[in-house]
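[job 4471] stage=fold_predict status=RUNNING
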Amino acid sequence: MRRIFFVEDDLSLINGLTFAIKKQGYEIDVARTRLEAETMWGNGNYDLVILDVSLPDGSGFDICKRIRQISKVPIMFLTAADEETDIIMGLDIGADDYITKPFKLAVFLSRINALLRRSDNFGAANSDSTNSGRADGELTSNGITVLLLKGEGYKNGKPLELTSSEYKLLCLFMENPDVVLTQERILGSLWDCNENYIDNKTLTVYIRRLRMKVEDDPGEPKKIVTVRGMGYKWNTTG
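[job 4471] inference complete, writing structure tokens
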């Protein structure tokens, strides 16, 4: 059974979401403070972490940073901190999703299921040799190499530290070289649910974060280029 670690100090929200998550067939452990969360994380092995930003004794951002030092477990922020700077910070420090309150329960549960599916399929789903000429299990372009069978990415032979969402986004671009991908196409591929629920600001952050890792000069991107009014493309033509 999949185990979810939920860090939240609002008791009414804890009760409601715990009930809903258990109805989905998941186990859930709850921590209400940063100290309690750090203690419980050390004792457990979880498939997904859901974090609030504001806690009585600290910040969910700090918990996220600590987890990312030792684990690639999917992390979702569920918080009232809805400023763009908060969203950017949460995703930049390694979160895979960021949901702001208030939210629709059905959307929240769908996003949980999507994160867990992507975690299950990380690397494995992309090793299907019937898609896009991937029989050799490898994509190579512009000095970037993705080993699909291992779920790993490299730049000029050096490993790229990619979250599952960044890895999936990179694969999507490299599988469609010199093809303009609309925001809707990218969001639909990333989230496995209705893209209307996804804030386009989030995609902008993902693109920027991936550029920081694959571009030689992220300020003047040559690989992931913006096609104004249309979307983005993986540029192989210089």
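[job 4471] summary: The chain has eight helices and 13 strands.
[job 4471] exit 0
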